[in-house]
Amino acid sequence: MLSVASECVPLIKTGGLADVVGALPAALAGQGWDMRVLLPAYRSLRAGAAGWARLWAAEDLFGGPGQVLAGQVAGLSVLLLDAPHLFDRDGGPYAGPGGDWPDNPQRFAALGWAAADIARLGLGDGWQPDVLHAHDWQGGLAPAYLRYRGAGQVRSVLTVHNIAFQGWAPAGLLGALRLPPEQFHSGALEYYGGLSALKAGLVTADAITTVSPTYAAELMRPEFGMGLQGVIAARAGQMTGILNGVDTDVWSPETDTGIIPYSARTLKRKALNRAALEAAFGLTVPGPLAIIVSRLTDQKGIDLIPGAMPAFVEAGGGLVVLGTGDPALEAAMRGLAARFPGRVGVRIGYDEAMSHRLFAGGDAVLVPSRFEPCGLTQMYGLRYGTLPVVAATGGLADTVIGASPATLAAGVATGIVFAPADALGLALALRRLTGLYADRKTWARLQRNAMRQPVGWAASAAAYARLYEGLAG
Ligand code: ADP
Ligand code: GLC
């Protein structure tokens, strides 16, 4: 099994994609699948590959030589695509100081080309996968090259983690990207007059998955499909939604070394974490302490937060935000901290250790996303008894059982689910949060329900294994 992606924990991460790509090999190993992960050798990764075996090479990989180096990192079998003309540069995986890398189409075409080549012909050590699993638009051309160059017995899967990123390129690059001109029509590669690496994958992969059942259905509608709804609807028979899991070794309040450990039976100790978090941010909050750990972008509904804060703070609530992203939203978050000193604390930046302290110390985690393919932070919230307050979309809707008269009576609620994801929806959800928090017995029950939810990889790994087995025949 060959997995191809642009991010993978612990090597390179900008979002949940990396967590998932990094977790799948161990999860699937338990099901008997030997998975290697092919990634670009970004500058930050090259030094770590010194002495690795060279198992594949190309003299001209979209403008320069390329080779694949194989090694082990933290138990993962990693293949790095070393092509200095494409990946050895200062900056992020997708953008440099001047914005998106202008040669992104070639960079990720090279990744897809190498993946398809390895899948078709195997590596220098004789290893050959029977399934090629590509992730998001950066992996999107891998199934296309595999299909167009002759797949043999190898089958392909494309997983959509976020349809908002489609890997667009002008039609004039068709030849440079080594794509067959006869496939440039609306039923295959053509996309609004240009090319899209994601569409190329969607039309050529043997199977398509996305990261939650609800997002799988949403993607077929214009409100969520972002132009690709028709392409996906046409392949509904090959499409499934498989929820992400979280790493329950890393996200476990009983064993987390960065917090004061607690469990569902020792929830009083969670209060010590809250006190520590309030102290760290200089807060004194009489009611529920909400947290946000997120990319600060429109997708995540962060712009809805300022409008909802006055009433929440008035009702006794407080908020701690850890995030980075859109400068306007960063400024809006800083503005909240200035406006509500003692009630709102904000840390702009990316800080894994700090994120654990927020989940341990918060009472509720807010995820008011406009769309959310799966989402991981609501699941961390469940693990830590930090009740998720989420918009009813994508994986948020699939992982949180919203408190309602029926779910409370049945004793199964694990959080608050609201719709639509707008200012009023969030304001009402926060009002509900304040009310539920005041009912200490019900709140504790919700926390225990939340902490019991199975959010690890077991069920999803089994679902992927069934999919692979079905394909590999
Ligand atoms: P997305 O991939 O859309 O950003 P996910 O919820 O799937 O959303 O994954 C986000 C991941 O990044 C989670 O592991 C989350 O904890 C982490 N994360 C996001 N922002 C920060 C931050 N500022 N500091 C630490 N971790 C963060
Ligand atoms: C994307 C989505 C997020 C999902 C992650 C991993 O970044 O925005 O919802 O959890 O991919 O699949």
Provide structural commentary.
By secondary structure, this protein is α/β, with parallel strands linked by helices. It is 40% helix and 19% strand. It has helices at residues 16-29, 43-46, 84-87, 104-121, 136-139, 141-149, 197-204, 213-218, 222-225, 229-234, 268-281, 305-314, 327-339, 352-361, 377-383, 394-399, 405-410, 423-438, 440-452, 458-472, and strands at 2-4, 36-40, 53-58, 66-73, 76-82, 95-96, 99-100, 131-135, 155-160, 168-169, 190-191, 194-196, 207-210, 239-241, 289-296, 318-325, 344-348, 364-367, 387-391, 416-418. Strands 3-4-5-2-1-8-9-13-14 form a nine-stranded mixed beta sheet, sandwiched between helices. The protein has a six-stranded parallel beta sheet with strand order 17-16-15-18-19-20, with helices on both faces. A three-stranded antiparallel beta sheet has the order 10-12-11. Helix 4 (104-121) crosses helix 6 (141-149), helix 6 crosses helix 7 (197-204) and helix 12 (305-314) packs parallel to helix 18. Bound molecules: adenosine-5'-diphosphate (ADP) and alpha-D-glucopyranose. Alpha-D-glucopyranose (GLC) binds next to helix 1.
How is this fold's topology laid out?
Elements: E1 2-4, H1 16-29, E2 36-40, H2 43-46, E3 53-58, E4 66-73, E5 76-82, H3 84-87, E6 95-96, E7 99-100, H4 104-121, E8 131-135, H5 136-139, H6 141-149, E9 155-160, E10 168-169, E11 190-191, E12 194-196, H7 197-204, E13 207-210, H8 213-218, H9 222-225, H10 229-234, E14 239-241, H11 268-281, E15 289-296, H12 305-314, E16 318-325, H13 327-339, E17 344-348, H14 352-361, E18 364-367, H15 377-383, E19 387-391, H16 394-399, H17 405-410, E20 416-418, H18 423-438, H19 440-452, H20 458-472
Parallel strand pairs: 1-2, 1-8, 2-5, 8-9, 9-13, 13-14, 15-16, 15-18, 16-17, 18-19, 19-20
Antiparallel strand pairs: 3-4, 4-5, 6-7, 10-12, 11-12
Helix pairs in contact: 4-6, 6-7, 11-14, 12-18
The structure holds adenosine-5'-diphosphate (ADP) and alpha-D-glucopyranose.
